[in-house]
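Our preliminary data section would be incomplete without showing what the modeling component actually yields. Below, a chain of 543 amino acids is followed by its predicted structure, encoded as C-alpha cells that our downstream tools consume directly.
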Amino acid sequence: MMMRLPAGRAPGEPVTDAITTFSDVRDQKALRDAADVIVIGTGAAGSVVAGLLAERGVDVVMVEEGPHVRAEEFRTDMDSSLKRMWRDSGFQTAMGRAVTPVLQGRCVGGTTVINGAIMHRMPEPIHAIWQREHGLGDAFSYADLERAFDQLDIDLSVAEAPESVLGGNSTLLRAGLAARGLSGNAIARNVVGCRGSAHCNQGCPTDRKQSMLVTFVPRALAAGARLYANCAARDFTWHAGRVGGVRARFRNEDGRPGPRLELQARHAVVVAASAVQTPLLLARAGIGRRSGLVGHRLQAHPGTAVVGAFHEPVQMRKGATQGYESTHFWHERMKFETVSMPIELIAARLPGLGPALVEQLANYDHLAVWGVQVRARAQGSVAQGLLGGTSIRYQLLPEDVHVLKRGVRVLSELMFEAGAHTVYPGVFGLPDQIQSPDALAALDALADDPARSHCTIAHLFGPALRGTAASNSVVTTGLEAHDAPGLFVADSSVFPTNLGVNPQHTISAVAFLLAEQLSETVHRRRSILRERPTSKAPVLQLS
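Predicted structure:
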C-alpha cells in the first residue's frame, strides 16, 4: 500500500494530515520513510531545528514519543493533563537521600506545552564559564546567541507579563520584595493576549501560550515536514560510517505496541529528546562510550515552594500561572518566582490528612505559593532501569541544601512582609505552620539534609556533554557526536552546567544556531553529491 502525503502549505495554515499517529497506522506491520534530516523530539529544541530547516528547503521528518493533543482536548483538571501530557503521569522521580519528582512533558511540543511560559536569556557569566572552563571557545558565541534570542523573541512573542494578568499571587510577591528593598520584575513570557486563566500546566486552553505545539511544529509542517506522533525512537542505523537513519515504534497512549517505523536520513539525525531520554537513546546505541560520560554529570535546578495564607483573597486561579520573579539573589545561586498551583497540586503540599487537609483546602482562595529554585552543584545520573524503565539518581549536596534553606527563609519572610498571617515553610524540623518570622531562626540549627524539604526538578542539564574531545565529552562544540558522524544533539543534555534561570529560551537559541549550520551543511552536501531537490510530497511506504 502507498500513501502520498500533501504538499507544503502557506505559513500559518493548519496542517494535520502531515501528522501520523498510532490510530492512523495501527493495522500496519511496518512503515518506512526518508528525509534529509530526522529530528527526534518536538520540544524547545527539536521543533526549532525542524521548523527552521524545513523553511530553508530541507526535507524533515519529526518523531515524537508522546501524543498530539490539541487545545480543544485540554482539560482544566490536573489529572487529565498529567495522564496525557506529562511523562509518567507526573510520577517520574529521581532517587537519592530524598525522592524527588522530575517534571517533564511527553507530547507534541514537549514540556513547552505544560510549563509556566518563562523565557530567560542565558546569563553571560554562565556562557563565560562554558568558554573558560569547558574549552568551548567561540563556538556559539554570545553574540550569536543574542541574535537567536532576538529572533525567537519575535517568533514566540516574548514580553513581560502585563499588569492585567499578574493576579494576586504575583502582586503579593512584588509587594513583599518592595517592602524589603529587593529587586523583582514581571516575568518575560512567550504568550499572546494571555487571559490569566492560570492553566499553563494543564496546557493553555486558548492557545495563547506560544508553545512549540502552536508555533514551530506548525511552521515545520506548513513548510512540508512530516510528524510521527505516539512513536518512540529506539535505535539508529548506519551507512558508510555515518548514522544513516532511525528505528522507531508506534505505541498507543495506553502502551500497546504498534507498527515499526524505519526512517532513512540522507544527511543527519538530530536528537532532541530531553536530558533524560537523549542519554538513554545514545547509551542503547553505544554512542559516547569512550568518554564514559553518557548519562552522567546530570545537573538541575531543584526547587521547593513556600505557601502563605492571607486574610484577603489571593485567588491563584486568576492570573498568569507564573507572573513575577526575583533574580536578586542569583549570585547566591537561587531565584524566586510565583507558582499558581491548582487545588489538586497544593493538596500535596499542605500539611495534614483527612478532615484537617479538607479544612486547609477550604481556604484555597486565600493561599499564595512562591518557589525558590537553586543553581545546584550536585551531579547525578540517568540510566536504563529494570524492566525498561528509567533510573535517575540525584542528591543535593549539603551546600545546595544550605542555599535552599536560605531561600525558604527569605521567601517566608517576604510572605510576612506581604501580609500573610500564616506561612507553611514545608521543612521537616520546623512547625507545619508558623505565625511569625521569628520561628524561622530554627532553620539555622537544622542539618543540611536534602530529605528535609519537598523538592521538585523541572530543569535538567549535562548528561551528553558538549566538549573538545571524545575522551572528555559526548558531542563536539558543533554538537555532532564524536564517534557517530551525522548524529547531532540539540537539547540541554549538551550543556556543561546548569544556568540558574529557566532554560527554554537558551535551549531554543542553541537549536536555532544548530539549524543554521545544518542547513548550510545539507545544501553543501547536496551540491557535492549533485542531489536533485527533494519533493515536497514525499512517499510513505507501508507494508
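The first strand starts at residue 2 and ends at 4. The CA atoms of residues 53 and 332 lie 40 Å apart. Preliminary results of this kind motivate Aim 1 of the renewal.
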